[in-house]
From TrEMBL:
Subcellular location(s) per record: Cytoplasm
Residue intervals of the PhoH-like protein domain: 98-301
Family classification: Belongs to the PhoH family.
Name of the protein in question: PhoH-like protein
Coiled coil: none
Keyword Ligase: no
Keywords from the UniProt entry: ATP-binding, Cytoplasm, Nucleotide-binding
Pfam families hit by this protein: PhoH (PF02562)
Molecular function terms, GO-annotated: ATP binding; RNA binding
Length: 310
């Protein structure tokens, strides 16, 4: 269970920690530099604790343990590694318990628990939106909030919204699909449908937020890099009593028309240092999707830097 079928988990750990792992029966030898070997040891012990606690171990958990063990943020990573093998830790939802899979994710979860307004910034695949939805569902189940509101700007990435078939809901649903996917990962399908029908969970384009005051709610704005400054100000000023807001986005993936300023970029400048507002910035090292996604992000970043330096 710990090593994986045909030692596949050990192979993953070797690649991520830069070590050589050799198993003989129940004895495991680690060869590598001091830091690498210590990281591999810490990851293996955390996974072993998880096995002893009766919790499943899969490629995702192996990658998370390695990522946390090699992080420079020792204290945060240590706490997150402990959570990885603690059945009582993490965010509880109906379908799963979510624990951080990188040091930045751990800081993000802390910010989500403590701050009224959180900005989650960084590339695709780092869990910005997924963890925000998990926090929202967890608080809803606890009774700490009365509803969840999920929103995105309906900005086309090369397509034209007006030419899509169907009524308004059918036109905008494809833009909101990632939010639906996250919800279905946290709650059984029938519960998602029921809560959507009763308005306990609302998924709507950003334009539908104008003129509202959102009280006792957990409000998430996804893909915020595609808001205009006016839209961003409008959204942030919807915050009502007993509510929390999360704004997620990647300022390197702006789909606004050329020359149009991003509301997210402006907000990052204006709101730095404002009490009650937290900023958590993810990097390509925090990508928790397929390992190739991280390499793709790094390749594009390198290309952008090369163009800027040309």
């Amino acid at each position: 269970m710990l090593f994986g079928e045909h030692g596949q988990f050990l192979t993953r750990l070797e690649k991520q920690t830069g070590t050589r792992l050799v198993s003989r029966g129940n004895v495991l030898s680690i060869a590598g530099g001091d830091q690498s070997a210590q990281a591999a040891r810490a990851a293996i012990l955390a996974l072993w604790d998880r096995v002893k606690a009766g919790m499943p171990v899969g490629p995702g958990e192996v990658d998370a343990a390695a990522r946390l063990a090699i992080s420079a943020d020792v204290q945060t990573s240590g706490n997150a590694l402990a959570q990885l093998s603690d059945p009582r830790a993490g965010l509880k939802t109906k379908r799963r318990t979510i624990t951080p899979r990188s040091a930045t994710q751990a800081r993000y979860l802390e910010a989500l628990a403590e701050s009224e307004l959180v900005f989650g910034l960084g590339p695709a695949g780092t869990g910005k939106t997924y963890l925000a939805v998990a926090q929202a569902v967890s608080l809803l189940m606890q009774g700490s909030i009365e509803r969840i509101i999920l929103s995105r700007p309906a900005v086309e990435a090369g397509e034209r919204l007006g030419f899509l078939p169907g009524d308004m809901k059918e036109k905008v649903d494809p833009y909101l699909r990632p939010l639906y996917d996250a919800l279905h990962d946290m709650l059984p399908g029938d519960q998602v449908t029921k809560r959507l029908e009763t308005g306990v969970i609302e998924v709507a384009p950003l334009a539908f937020m104008r003129g509202r005051t959102l009280s006792h709610a957990f409000v998430i704005l996804d893909e915020a890099q595609n808001t205009t400054p006016m839209q961003m100000k409008m959204f942030l000023t919807r915050l009502g009593e007993g509510s929390r807001m999360v704004v997620t986005g990647d300022v390197t993936q702006i789909d606004l028309p050329t020359g149009q300023k991003s509301g997210l970029r402006e907000a990052l400048t204006i709101l730095r240092g404002v009490e009650g507002v937290s900023f958590v910035e993810f990097s390509d090292q925090d990508v928790v999707r397929h390992p190739l996604v991280g390499r793709i992000v790094r390749a594009y970043d390198a290309a952008d830097r090369a163009r800027e330096g040309a």
